[in-house]
Design goal:
Elements (H helix, E strand, L loop, with lengths): L11 E8 L5 H17 L3 E4 L6 H9 L2 E4 L12 E3 L7 H8 L4 E3 L3 H15 L3 E5 L5 H7 L7 E4 L2 H5 L8 E5 L5 H14 L13 H14 L4 E5 L5 H12 L3 E5 L7 H4 L4 E6 L5 H14 L1 E8 L11 H8 L2
Parallel strand pairs: 1-11, 1-12, 2-3, 2-4, 4-5, 6-7, 6-8, 9-10, 9-11
Helix pairs in contact: 4-5, 8-9
The structure holds iron/sulfur cluster (SF4).
Length: 325
């Protein structure tokens, strides 16, 4: 009689799933804008830059007939619209679209638009504007591009604040929406020390989704040995989640999907938390959980640190187009 082979014993792993995680209201809206535009206008629909920073989302939309373009010049005039991404665009972009007679739909997140308006209001009042953010990110390019060149100075750190010239003009600050809450607090403190009369946003510019996801991962990281953040390498808020987890002493890895998991780093550990950046779909989280399940005897827990119920209406141009179909 051959000996019965026993299935290998899987090591036990406590998995703490952060809530909230993943898609925010701005991302849900941006994707819906593209899906609905496809229905109203038919493919192709053009989108300037990635609609949100996630290849999985982008490739899914490409399969439905969306054409992603780097610049407006790649989109032809005609009945098919060009959509601006959730990150927002500089004023010159809709101006160029108008000059070229392009049909446009703006999927900029309303919370990014709020920052644009704040910057414009400060400028009107003659204030010098400091934007706290990351150089080269589409959102900071869009926010700086709301005003003439030189009106906004970008700072990324306390050191940058120390190097700001003081020309005696009143000063105000706005921030990118997806920054680290803790790092930004330090930069704001440095600004307030150098410029005690600096004007602050009436409500924090770092958005509710960024704040909630960072709080959730912070709480989870304190309970586990490692954290897996699902998100794209070019997603600012996903990178911040990884940093927050690392600061809490966790081994953190940012992965685009389950194929990116560094299993060696998890060897011998008994607990891991899982979260996702605001542009990472839940389907990817499920794939991560399935990959963990295949290797471990998983005990799953959900850690809820906030409940979200925010939803944004679709852009008026799209609602009107839908109504006229
Ligand atoms: S992360 Fe915040 S600002 Fe960015 S799209 Fe989502 S809700 Fe809007």
């Amino acid at each position: 009689m051959p000996e019965a082979t026993q299935p290998p014993v899987r090591p036990r792993l406590r998995v703490v799933l952060c809530a909230p995680r993943g898609f925010c209201a701005g991302v849900v809206r941006a994707i819906e804008v593209v899906e609905r535009a496809l229905q109203v206008y038919g493919p192709p629909v053009y989108v300037r830059h990635e609609i949100v920073h996630n290849r999985f989302v982008v490739e899914g939309l490409e399969a439905k007939g969306v054409v992603f373009v780097k610049e407006l010049s790649e989109a032809p005039p005609g009945p098919h619209p060009v959509i601006f991404s959730a990150h927002g665009v500089a004023k010159a972009v809709p101006e160029e679209a108008k000059a070229r007679n392009l049909l446009t739909i703006d999927a900029t997140c309303p919370l990014v638009t709020k920052v644009h308006r704040e910057a414009q209001a400060h400028h009107k009042r003659g204030r010098r504007i400091v934007l706290i953010g990351h150089a080269g990110h589409p959102e900071t390019i869009g926010t700086m591009g709301q005003l003439p060149p030189g009106a906004v100075t970008l700072v990324g750190s306390v050191v940058d604040v120390g190097q700001l010239p003081d020309d005696g003009r009143p000063i105000a600050y706005v921030t990118q929406t997806t920054l680290s809450v803790d790092d930004t607090r330090e930069v704001v403190e440095a600004l307030k020390t150098r410029f005690p009369a600096v004007h602050a946003p009436p409500v924090d510019d770092i958005c509710y989704a960024t704040t909630n996801r960072q709080e959730a991962v912070k709480a989870a990281a304190r309970q586990v040995e490692a954290v897996i953040v699902v998100g794209a390498a070019n997603s600012s808020n996903s990178q911040r989640l990884r940093e927050v987890a690392e600061r809490e002493g966790s081994l953190a890895q940012l992965v685009a999907d389950e194929s990116g998991i560094d299993w060696t780093a998890l060897e011998g550990l008994g607990s891991v938390a899982v979260t996702a950046g605001a542009s990472a779909p839940e389907a990817l989280v499920e794939r991560i959980l399935a990959a963990l399940d295949a290797r471990y005897e998983v005990a799953l827990e959900i850690l809820t640190t906030a409940r979200e119920s925010i939803a944004f209406p679709l852009p008026r141009a799209l609602r009107e187009a839908e109504a006229s179909v």
